[in-house]
């Protein structure tokens, strides 16, 4: 059971309007946003930050951003965000082979070296203590420019917030996210956990 009950999507009309963004991303408004709107300034600021972070300004694709989010969420153990990230990666055109083998991104041929560097960055930046070091910096700069690295860290940081929000809140997971979680992550033990 969630720590705080989500409110109706009609509770705050400005949040409802902004949340249309998630209909494209996920196909539904996440329960996390419906909970945040108990303080509408938080829900609105979160949605605007999400839109800014997920905007494409360089070569970091929408699909790669969602895979970065998955790696970050997997590192922190947030099952809610793992399912949301893999669903969004699917909806934004990630290759089927990458979706099916996201757990093996370090070695699977569906991932190139630039993607591996980005996903390793996500893993290192999501750990406590932080594991970003000079070796990883060098690998990133072999494939990405500084603006693209900022975009990646924006995703990692956004999901740091979401991982803590949703795991602490025990946010109820939506059916569509469950479906994607089971399809792509279930073979490695993904389950709803506390997000019932």
Automatic annotation (TrEMBL):
InterPro entries associated with the record: AhpD-like (IPR029032), CMD-like (IPR003779)
Protein name per its UniProtKB record: Carboxymuconolactone decarboxylase family protein
GO function terms (MF aspect): peroxiredoxin activity
Gene3D superfamilies in alphabetical order: AhpD-like (1.20.1290.10)
Ranges of residues in domain Carboxymuconolactone decarboxylase-like: 40-120
Source organism, top-level taxon: Bacteria
First and last residue of the signal peptide: none
């Amino acid at each position: 059971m969630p720590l705080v009950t989500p409110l109706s999507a009609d509770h705050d009309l400005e949040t409802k309007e902004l949340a249309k963004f998630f209909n494209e991303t996920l196909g539904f408004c996440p329960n996390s946003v419906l909970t945040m709107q108990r303080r509408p300034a938080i829900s609105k600021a979160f949605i605007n930050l999400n839109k800014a972070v997920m905007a494409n300004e360089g070569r970091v694709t929408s699909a790669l951003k969602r895979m970065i989010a998955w790696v970050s969420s997997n590192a922190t153990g947030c099952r809610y965000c793992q399912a949301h990230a893999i669903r969004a990666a699917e909806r934004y055109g990630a290759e089927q082979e990458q979706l099916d083998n996201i757990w093996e991104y370090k070695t699977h041929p569906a991932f190139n070296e630039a993607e591996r560097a980005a996903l390793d960055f996500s893993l290192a930046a999501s750990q406590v203590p932080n594991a970003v070091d000079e070796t990883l910096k060098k690998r990133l700069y072999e494939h990405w420019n500084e603006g693209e690295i900022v975009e990646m860290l924006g995703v990692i940081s956004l999901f740091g917030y979401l991982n803590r929000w949703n795991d602490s809140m025990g946010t109820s997971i939506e059916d569509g996210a469950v479906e994607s979680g089971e399809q792509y992550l279930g073979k490695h033990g993904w389950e709803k956990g506390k997000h019932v």
